[in-house]
Amino acid sequence: MSLPVTPKVPFGGDYNPEQWPEPVWGDDYRLFDLAGIDTVTLGVFDWALTQPAPEVYDFALLDRIVERATAQGRMICLATGTGAHPAWLARAHPEVTRVDFEGRRHRFGQRHNSCPSSPVFRRLSAELARRVAGRYADKRSVVAWHVGNEYGGACYCELCAAGFRDWLRERYRTLAALNTAWYTTFWSHTFTDWDEIEPPSALTEHWRGPDHTAFQGITLDYRRFMSEAMLANFRDEKAAIRESSELPVTTNFMGMYRPIDYHRWAEQLDFVSWDNYPPDDSSPHWAALSHDLMRGLKGGQPFWLMEQTPSMTACRDVNQLKRPRVMRLWSWQAVAHGADAVLFFQLRASRGACEKYHGAVIGHAGRADTRVFREVAELGAELGRLGGATLGARTPARVALLFDWDSWWALEISDGPSRLVRYQQVLLAYYRALWEAGVDVDVVAVDADLSGYQVVVAPALHMVKGDLAERLAGVAERGGSVLTTFLSGRVDVDGNAFLMDVPGPLGPLLGVRVDEWDAREADVVNPVCLGEGADRVEVAARLVFELVIAEGAEVVGSYQADFYAGTPAVTRHAYGAGHGWYVGTALDQPGVSWVVRQVLDHHGLTGPYPDLPGLETTVRVTGDGTRLRFLLNHDAEPVQVTATVGGVDLLTGARVEPGEPLRLDGHGVRVVREE
């Protein structure tokens, strides 16, 4: 099973007509026609409406909503409605609500409040999915099923404690193996009975919050368990849907979302979809990394952009408005990185509750002459002209960035060397360097096949599992380059230190050992000199300074201060026909970019415009080999470059000749079918 079958890139989003009177629906569809909206996601939070009492199911309202969308010729992504449980369920079965990290049993409210281990919740959510799918499976307008909504959070109740113990029995088989993995001889923590094990919380191993734990092993395993417990909820509903429908099934991910290991989920989804809400309006590389991560979850298969705001969010302390043309730009950025659908939250603004000020295609007044609506309509027209040209197209990346939830968790729950190091920020720095160089990147799991890549970048690869060290060495052996950084190669799958020199099993590839490491506050800078001669540059390093000893590696950069001045900070080691690079400190962005460019230049992998960091370029290749070149100008000012190949701009129909000037307006976009 793969992506939904559609004639073009679906365009639309979350539509909640149950929230307002039916006469409004006619106005909505009139405006949808004006905007080119052809797809609606329905019923995401309908549980209380479709099952108003324990033994009562009422689909009358949803029937009318689906019938209206079908009659209006819209494609439907139909949700099971289980994104939040109803009040009657919490009252009848209080155990379906979660117990939080502090040990408090929650009452009804919010939406991420369902215990994933509750048999009642699992039974009733699956039954609702079964009935929804059975009722609407034959509707020609339904193209996909949407299970739950933005799974996340955690529960620490007795049901989850029991589920955790069962999960541990399956994982370790014996208490002896568990005690070894968790290093329980420390602090007299040896377990002699499975029932002695408690979920790690503020009442047990954590004393200063979720990231401060006395035993990394138990906390690491509880995060793994909770991710898989919620996956079991998804699988329950998917299995219920499969009783009556073979249409593709998905749920909406949240990009770089720490609590859920999406690599462990990906196989269970027929296609990936996700909600893009960047932290600000000045970090296009953040969204690009998230898109590439989502595309990489299923081996490069395109994904759906399930949600984005057309204007602003409403969930932050300060909610920035998207500047003119930025919504269009970011939508095309998603397509450039593999999106086969462009959808919004929300199509009409809610009148009440916490999202009444969240951006929407149609505001409370229902006007068609707002800036936001006009921009959405212009984008809809462009996607109409594009048709199905990009559907199914793949990204021909020769560079891989390793993204590992286990390393993320293990690094940030460790005491020492520095709690100021954040896994996501380290990855972003290295991804940004690749992005600014115009390189197509696959963001993949540590167990992915690496044989097709010339360069593998593995920042903060804190945990080294299975045969990863051997496979990375194989990349260099055949002539590729592997680049990794400080705090890599530190622990095994259980979070325990390797009984060998740092960087553990990566040592032979990198040709270095690390005997000591220094950590300082964020305002302490140690200059690092990179390169030599006329190409020598000085950059800043912060947070962690590993004392690297070269054991066969060539020194590329050295510290300039403190007692370790003159010692290696960046090294390159010849290994087989390739190289292993090691960066022993947190370089600033210019430093990271300098190192990354050395690696890329060696393989001739930089993009056509690497010296214009605001100009993003990507390529997608269709099944028949057609190359689609996306150019996106993230600056507010126009930019002009020289076209490197000829073709046709699919958005305007204009020809592009090689060697001629190619202009992009501020926040402009070109999609060139290359010839």
From TrEMBL:
Residues 614-674 form the Beta-galactosidase C-terminal domain. It comes from Micromonospora craterilacus. It catalyses: Hydrolysis of terminal non-reducing beta-D-galactose residues in beta-D-galactosides. Residues 14-384 form the Glycoside hydrolase family 42 N-terminal domain. Substrate binds at R111, N149. CDD domains: A4_beta-galactosidase_middle_domain. Keywords: Glycosidase, Hydrolase, Metal-binding, Zinc. Its EC number is 3.2.1.23. Belongs to the glycosyl hydrolase 42 family. Residues 397-605 form the Beta-galactosidase trimerisation domain. This is Beta-galactosidase. It holds the Pfam family Glyco_hydro_42. The keyword Mitochondrion does not apply. The active site is at E150 (proton donor), E307 (nucleophile). GO terms for biological process: galactose metabolic process. One of its GO terms (molecular function) is metal ion binding. GO terms for cellular component: beta-galactosidase complex. Zn(2+) binds at C115, C155, C157, C160. The keyword Nucleotide-binding does not apply.
